[in-house]
Amino acid sequence: RRFLRRTAEVVDFTNERTTEDRVGHSTFMAGTIGSTSECPGFAPDAQLTFVRVFDSRQTSTTAWFLDGFNFILRRSESVDLINLSVGGPDYRDEAFAAKVRELATKGVTIVSGAGNSGPVWGTLLNPADEAWVVGVGGLRAFDGRLAEWSSRGPTLWELPLGAGRSGVDVVTHGEFWAAHPSSGCQHQYGTS
Q1: 41: which residues sit within 8 A by CB, 6+ positions away?
Q2: Which of 32, 74, 127, 132 has an alpha carbon 20 to 30 Å from 101's alpha carbon atom?
Q3: Degrees (nearest 5) of the Cα angle 164, 65, 10?
Q4: What is the pTM of this model?
């Protein structure tokens, strides 16, 4: 986190009891947002709070998410936006969905990637498919067209009885150079 100018808090809700990013995804996302290094982020003056709910094996539980969401709810006066870079077919996880809805009603903007499972229609992930979440799709860097890997709606969860939800609210850059945890820059793509 040496390349970030403003870090408010770093907390862990996993059973590993560490705040170290052992996978690299959140470090890359933090760099994309707030890096002040040679690969500057889009908002280098943003104050970032890190809530770790995935362990080093990239697994999580609803309980860890709920603990993290409750942590943010207690700070909702100072948190404007959550970058929820997760996705799955979890729309039936009522506790998760209800807590995301509660955050939104408290005025916290929630942004979530649509997923990286394109180009097939019906690959949109939850929570990007929720009405109170800004679902984000990805564009190719070289021509600005929708990236092949970017997930698309509508959701298939409700079929055959429902129509599904479209959920992709915006599309933006899907390929980035951002600060590498050790030094220099790294390239990644995705809707996170």
Answers
A1: 30, 31, 32, 33, 34, 35, 178, 179
A2: 32
A3: 130
A4: 0.89
